[in-house]
Amino acid sequence: MNSALAPRQPAATPPRSAPAEALRVLVVDDDPIYRETARMFLSMLGRNVSLAENGQTGLQALAEKTFDILIVDMEMPDMSGLEVIRQLRMRPALADLPVIMVTSRDDAMAIDRAYELGASSFVVKPVNWTLLDHCLRFVCRAARNETIARTAQAEAETLGRTKDNLLSVLRHEMKTPLNAIIGFTKLAAEARESGDLAGMREHLEAVQESGKRLLQSFADMSIYSDLISGRVAAGHEPTAPGWIVDDVLESRRGELVASGLEVIREDAESGLKIQCDQGLLASALGRIVDNVIRHAKGATTVTLSVRHWPGEVVISVADDGEGMESEDISRCLEPFAQGDMSLSRPNQGLGMGLPIALGIVALHGGTLEAESQPGQGMTVRLRLPTKGAA
To answer: What is the mean pLDDT of residues 220-234?
Structure first.
């Protein structure tokens, strides 16, 4: 809208106040006088102001730069302010951006429509710049508080799911070995009384296995607790990614042979060494291999590969098993969750393999990703940065 500013506000210098936060403001208006006036007054109030002469240019600026708030005129040729809001709300990165709508007329229906599309507030021309700045600060503060509240709610929901998953898994993982310990201890005592030393030894070995299973469960809980609370410090020693793979394969040689899995080793050797904690990363990779050994139904091969890309090293573990649905993968990445959460499930463990591996990789500044489709196996990749590599 190419509107005049009459009756115009006096071009007086705004009152002095404490230094304001340098909020990044984008002003979208087709009136060049209004745009420059907005730049002058808001800049004097401590704002970092950018200008756009129409809706399309404004949307392009929003895609290229980060802003704390948008001030947009309702009536512009080609693309109205309402259309600008509608389009930016379709972009996930801009869905929560605060927007102040500026209008030269008191149109209740248009203002209601602006709020429906996602406007945060509105002002009427001619603009009182001091009041606009107060509105700007209030809207930004409200948006921050809403983001904090939404984040807190999401965290609370995650903690709730974690608690429910933990209780469900513990009922399975604690009850079974404890019953075994009690039962086999009784059987061992009876075998001793009858002089059946071989039977007693067999029962005690079963007790020992159940105890190891309990100890591993508590160790997993302790490790994950240390990871999420920041109590784990990663070492930084020059390490060839292939060494990590070799450590894991050597430590699990017996289990791999017993499982009947054929191991394929692929390493694009480049002599590159990354700064990392070899023991921690071997633990992360080992947990992923353990998942294949214990849970990859129908798998006949497991492939461990190392690839070097600009800025990162990727260590992958792929199997040719039955695979799983994407929602099951998401659940397996949550702590104390498994693909099968029923109490009758045959698999053992707390479901902490991938969450612990993810935490260890994150400690090194990397990421973990998993992909699978039913009937096409599963691939888990550890992406590690090569910054500071030797």
So the answer is: 79
